[in-house]
Design goal:
alpha/beta; UDP-N-acetylmuramoyl-L-alanine:D-glutamate ligase; Protein-Tyrosine Phosphatase, Chain A; six-stranded mixed sheet; 17 strands; 35% helix; 16% strand
Length: 422
Amino acid sequence: MKLQKIVNHLQELHPKEIDLSLNRIKNLCKNLGNPQDNLKTISIVGTNGKYSTIRALFAILKEANFNCNIYTSPHIVRINERFIFNNHELNDEDLSKLLEDVAEANNNDPITFFEILTAAYFYQAAKTPENINLIEAGLFHRFDATNILKKNLASVVTSIGLDHLDWLPKNEQNIEKIIFEKTSTLLNSNIIVSKQSSDYIKSEIKKSLSRNNSKKYFFGDDYNYLFNENGFVYYEDKKGGIKLPQPNIKGQFQLDNISNAIATLRSLEELNINENHIKSGITKIKSIARLQEINSGKLKELVRDNILLVDGSHNPLGAKVLNEYLNSLDCNKHIILGMMANKNHKEYMSYFKNISTLTTIEIPNQPNSINGKELKNKLNSFKNVQYKESISEAIKSIPVKKNDIILITGSLYLAGEVLNLN
């Protein structure tokens, strides 16, 4: 209860959830002694795949006996997920103390929730300067609170697509503006650019980075992977090739994120990451709400022998790769969908083909989610679409047959509610 009370207080320090500026975070970090200035950091920016890339980096680094600090957002179930230090999630007592100390330094000045959490992360991370920090950028990056570092080991640019357009001016709601916001202020170090959904996006990223003096590594040009039907993955870069085992996470698109992680760590020669670290690490990746299979719990009991998956994808790029995974499965697929009101619901669902049933719901405890009935009406072009009042009712209403799968998707907030309910 103490932690929740502190969190509630921090959420009230600014009238807006997001207010793109670096002034408040810089002022607070100055009060804290600028803890961000001496961290060993790998920064991860992009639209999709940031979290998965971080989890792959983390798994490999742990195999190489590195201690890591990790900062991600949003959290899925508990706010503690955002604060990993020395390879472990911060417990309630230590997180409460950390947030109290940083709140005291802030002295009730206006600051957004994300900004003060970011300052708290930097403050705690500075206590272990020898650790490697894996830091996920928030919205866009240029005016994101994580973008006050003076140096880093590397920047990873994951796949970039259209998302959060409502935060851009009407005349700038385009992919070119998003690429500029995410890549124009990357630090001079090493930049690893993931596989992109089109050659045009890749060329625009190259254009944006043309004046950046970093060493640059582009998927397709400098590193690549091939998926072999015999069950292994062949990764290759200018240092040579590695025959990899199948990773322990679902979806071929996750190989994009894993190859980002491998390319990044192999570019940092001072870390001495070897093939065995990589091979072992990718079989131990722990990921929440990214094509996560629910193997036990209250909701799993409702589906019995059928597979229940939860995935937090919420934009067209996420829908595209998720559908590619579903199409690789020879079974009936049933989708339960809940989304935030500000998303492009029709475009998101337009990527899903060969769906047996679609059930819309509201996202519990999220007043900014779209009403489930309204969502159903928007998607009435789907043959078997229905609305249900709850996650449990939605699951129970689906006429599953042997080997069918149920996928709950559309929002990270919905994924969190699913895992809590389960």
